[in-house]
Amino acid sequence: MLELREVEAPQPRPDEVLIKVAAAGVNRPDLAQRQGHYQPPPGASSLIGLEVSGTIAEVGTEVSNWEVEDPCIALLAGGGYAEYAVAPASQVVPPPLGVELVAAAGVIEVAATVYSNLELADLADGDVFLVHGGAGGIGSFAIQYAKSLGATVITTAGSEEKLRYCLSIGADRAISYRGDWAAEVREAAGNGVNMILDNMGAKYLGDHVQLLAADGLLAIIGVQGGRSGTLDLWSLMQRRGIVTASLLRFRPVAEKAAICRGLVERIWPLIADDTIKMPPLTVFPLAEAAAAHARLESGDNIGKIILSVAR
Length: 311
Hints:
Blueprint: E1 16-26, H1 28-34, E2 51-59, E3 71-75, E4 84-88, E5 92-93, H2 101-104, H3 108-121, E6 128-131, H4 137-148, E7 152-157, H5 160-168, E8 173-176, H6 181-189, E9 193-198, H7 205-211, E10 212-220, H8 233-238, E11 242-245, H9 253-272, E12 281-285, H10 289-298, E13 304-308
Parallel strand pairs: 6-7, 6-9, 7-8, 9-10, 10-11, 12-13
Antiparallel strand pairs: 1-2, 1-4, 1-13, 2-3, 3-5
Helix pairs in contact: 3-4, 3-9
């Protein structure tokens, strides 16, 4: 259950800032934490929420690059579903130019996840890229960023409305996952897929290995389709394939700080010039977090779900 309660406001450590939260993004890991499957890292807030937007309310004694009332967005290890949240100052950045504060709450988690994984693949002009759930937060961002790098983008979705949306933001091919999606991807990809950004895990593992191009990369970022699967090592070896798996939440602060710097330098300009368009937003008040989770679980949402913290 999700219930709204009063607790003590967090206090920033010397290298942290306290943020007066305007809004918090809702992400798939939040659902898993609510269900008891995804506990926060040691020392992190036990409250749900991995990204927020707002204004600086207080700065730690070692922080010199932020001032009270500065607008900001932050990548968190927890604590976002609240009126106040703390974050390492190095994981706090200005919102992208032209993005208002509530909408900005849904940017940094998906951007950091996609950017850090596509950096591994060194995705380049002419490569083929596959991402599932193209109408969601991760998918819609990944489609546009991969296109900006010159890749041919293939995605899947579960309804005609979502397939049309994926095509409207740049996907070269949008395929229903309710049919033989793997056969359609194979036909569309030609010589195989250079990178697969995989939020499904076990359910699609066998198909993904078979779809990889020579020297292709399968980057696993979620386990919506299960945690344990069978990996055909011989097929992987024939393709000289690479399989990686990562969780952004558990990375050290220094690594997340480097990713945040990369977002400001390389991704925010693409949002500012509309190369990457903000997705549709569905906004719930903080007190209706349970309804927001139900909306995400339904699979009906297009774009990003946001909790607005009105005071």
